[in-house]
Specification:
Elements lengths: L10 H6 L5 H18 L2 H19 L5 H17 L5 H13 L8 H18 L7 H14 L2 H18 L7 H9 L7 H14 L11 H12 L4 H19 L3 H6 L7 H14 L20 H18 L1 H20 L7 H22 L2 H26 L9 H26 L4 H5 L5 H7 L6 H17 L4 H14 L4 H16 L11 H16 L7 H15 L4 H18 L4 H10 L2 H24 L6 H28 L4 H17 L9 H12 L7
Helix pairs in contact: 2-4, 3-4, 4-6, 5-6, 6-8, 7-8, 8-10, 9-10, 10-12, 11-12, 11-15, 12-15, 14-15, 15-17, 16-17, 16-18, 16-19, 17-19, 18-19, 18-21, 19-22, 22-24, 23-24, 24-26, 25-26, 26-29, 27-29, 27-30, 29-30, 29-31, 30-31
Length: about 700
């Protein structure tokens, strides 16, 4: 290979090696040439240029592979830009002749592709110097684009992108021709072609004003269609095109505006176009027929993800200052997306849309705004949460029944709450100690607003509020103990409200889980307080059927959270915990059969939730207090765990008898059981392998899941 390291190709050495090794030898020479050309003496290059051009152009016809043709094109272009340009038009004509050739055989394809790559490299490197030949070159490329197969289409589009890059505004006469030929390929069945078109159009929009004025709607529709059934590469390329075109339509480049009297799009118009893709996908706008008027039919997931990325590109292109000025409008718009019925038709779709909107907020607010602007953004988010909560309270307190759409409003508001609270929590956590004005300024009322969401009718919103409070406590550790006390007090005062029991126990569990991130910790006595609250909840769960479920879940959740405080706290409460765990499961098959005979649908739901909670607290104990896992403790833990395994085989008959709504609770019991077994040494439950294997086989073969 050392023989390949020379300015000219060593033809003698090439002739002596076997046919199979020649392409590798040539590739090695091209790699060496790539490094050496830029550093070589210009006189040396000019002396050997004629021979070098002959050798390189000769390689075009030798059917080079993709890496070789890329280096070949790069070296030829570099050679002309460093040395003399006398023969450049001659070489360009030679490449154009190869491209024009009607030979469509597979054997000739690599030669054609190499010629296409060379044309692109020439224009990229020498640009306007080749201006006189460009109309013919572009026409030639566009003509062969029509008959090319996918690999050819992709290479021609990449070449056109380089031509546009090199010529800039000088290629204006061909802009519309390139656009017309390229746009139809944005929905090509080959993903590589879609990527190449998106990159070519992205280059074109730098100079072609019509793309972000007259053609703006068409470009948007095409991009949405291009995202259907796309892969990651296509989503990145298309979202970059869509986001950039939208940003340019809103704020055109100064030079372009000076040249022509351009009508700028308004922010509302641009956001409405983007929202169409997010909510309706590639089905076009209202004028494209009745398809849009039907509410049914969900958006292809790839389209929603692609449009999400386009939002991020759009804001990033406009920059941090723009986001700072327009944050209120932008926030209102993205939160409207997630509350729209079309974005949340099923539970899975709603979760997906929430993830998309959270990504838009995190990727823009989290990376483009400075400290001061982030505090302003947090205030804005607080206001949005407060406004939503007021609307929810109005629906909840409306006893007259006049508000018919109340349930739908609450369902929509939970998605807004989740996204807003997640972003608020992330903002406060990244601001750290500088977030204190948000807590201390009474006019903002961050704590009151977030705490009010703990009473939201939706569980998802309550969980998000709890997580947000934890973020505040981690950012400002001196607030942790007062938060805990306040939640404990409210839980005590509002223990007759199911939402309050659920919401405040979520908040306490979240705060306890955040203690290990706070260097200050919490007073030792707080552990005792949590245990007594949890015990009280579990003891009184059976007294009021309206609160049974919430109190059972809350009691076990608090005990599970307590375990995260580690062995120093848990040691004192371990005997009590072992007793609680033992009592929550039936001790024998006889007890289990008796339970099945007397239970009804509701009591079974409470029982299953209680057992899932107990297993979860056990898992938390095993994970956070390994020092306390003596042989004796493991033996005592195994009693309820073995009971849980026995119960698993009886659950299908319980579901059959009492209804499919128990499936979710039963799945939770299974999940928690597998969770804890994964942490324990397998030796400890060797005797239950048979029963466990039966359950695992049923899981993997989806025996219970007819869907």
């Amino acid at each position: 290979m050392e023989l390949a390291h020379s300015l000219l190709l060593n033809e003698e050495a090439l002739a002596q090696i076997t046919e199979a090794k020649r392409p590798v030898f040539i590739f090695e020479w091209l790699r060496f040439l790539d490094k050496v050309l830029v550093a070589a003496n210009k006189t040396d290059v000019k002396e050997k240029q004629k021979k070098l051009v002959e050798q390189l152009t000769g390689l075009i016809s030798s059917s080079p592979g993709p890496p070789t043709r890329k280096l070949l094109a790069k070296n030829l272009a570099a050679l002309y830009s460093i040395g003399d340009t006398f023969t450049v038009f001659q070489t360009l004509d030679k490449c154009n002749d190869i491209i024009r050739n009607k030979d469509d055989t597979a054997a000739y394809l690599p030669t054609k592709l190499a010629a296409v790559a060379c044309v692109g490299a020439f224009y990229e490197k020498m640009g306007r110097m080749l201006g006189s030949a460009f109309p013919e070159t572009v026409n030639n490329l566009l003509k062969s684009l029509k008959s090319a197969e996918s690999q050819g289409r992709s290479e021609i589009l990449m070449s056109l992108q380089k031509v546009l890059n090199g010529l800039g505004g000088a290629a204006a006469s061909s802009h519309r021709d390139i656009y017309k030929n390229a746009r139809s390929l944005l929905t090509d069945r080959s993903m590589a072609v879609r990527c190449a078109v998106a990159k070519c159009l992205l280059e074109l929009q730098n100079e072609a004003v019509f793309m972000w004025t007259a053609e703006l709607e068409n470009i948007a529709t095409l991009c949405f269609k291009a995202l259907e059934n796309s892969n990651y590469g296509v989503r990145v390329a298309v979202s970059k095109l869509l986001g950039t075109v939208m940003a340019t339509a809103l704020m055109p480049k100064q030079a372009t505006v000076m040249r022509q009297n351009v009508k700028r799009a308004t922010l509302d118009e641009v956001l409405e176009l983007m929202a169409t893709g997010f909510l309706r996908g590639g089905s076009g706008f209202l004028k494209s027929g009745g398809e849009m008027l039907k509410v049914g039919g969900s958006v292809n997931r790839e389209v929603r993800v692609g449009v999400t990325q386009a939002y991020v590109v759009f804001v990033t292109t406009l920059g941090g200052q723009w986001l700072e000025r327009s944050f209120a409008t932008f926030l209102s718009h993205v939160l409207d997306l997630v509350s729209h019925p079309r974005a949340t038709q099923t539970h899975v779709e709603a979760v997906y849309s929430r993830r998309c909107v959270s990504f838009i907020l995190r990727a823009t607010v989290g990376s483009l705004l400075g400290e001061k602007a982030q505090i302003a953004a947090a205030k804005e988010i607080c206001q949005a949460i407060g406004k939503q909560m007021k609307a929810v309270e109005a629906v909840v307190n409306d006893t007259s029944g006049e508000n018919k759409s109340g349930a739908a409003d609450i369902a929509a508001s939970q998605h807004v709450m989740v996204c807003a609270l997640q972003e608020l929590g992330s903002l406060v956590q990244s601001l750290n100690a500088t977030a204190s004005p948000l807590i201390q300024e009474a006019s903002i009322g961050l704590l009151e607003i977030v705490t009010s969401v703990l009473l939201h009718p939706s569980m998802a919103a309550r969980l998000a509020a709890a997580w947000c409070l934890r973020c505040v406590a981690v950012a400002l550790p001196f607030q942790l103990t007062p938060f805990l006390d306040r939640c404990a007090e409210r839980l005590n005062n509002l223990k007759t409200s199911p939402e309050a029991v659920s919401g405040y126990s979520f908040a306490m569990a979240a705060l306890l889980g955040g203690v290990h991130q706070c260097p200050l910790g919490i007073p030792h006595a707080k552990g005792k307080m949590v245990v007594s609250i949890a015990e009280d909840l579990l003891r009184t769960a059976a007294q009021n059927s309206r609160l049974s479920l919430q109190r059972t879940q809350a009691g076990w959740l608090l005990l599970g959270a307590l375990m995260t405080l580690g062995p120093s706290v848990v040691r004192y409460h371990l005997p009590k915990m072992l007793l609680l765990w033992r009592n929550v499961f039936p001790r024998s098959l006889k007890e289990l059969e008796a339970e099945k005979a007397r239970g009804d649908s509701f009591t079974w739901q409470v029982t299953l939730e209680g057992r899932a909670g107990a297993l979860c607290a056990m898992r938390s104990f095993v994970a956070h207090c390994p020092e306390l896992l003596t042989e004796d403790v493991i033996r005592k833990l195994m009693t309820p765990i073995e009971c849980a395994m026995t119960m698993m085989s009886h659950i299908p008959s319980v579901i059959k008898a009492h209804g499919a709504h128990l499936k979710a609770s039963a799945a939770m019991v299974r999940l928690r059981l597998y969770d804890i077994l994964a942490l324990l040494p397998p030796k400890t439950y060797e005797g239950s392998f048979n029963a466990l294997l039966r359950e695992l086989v049923a899981e993997f073969t989806l025996t219970e899941n007819s869907a």
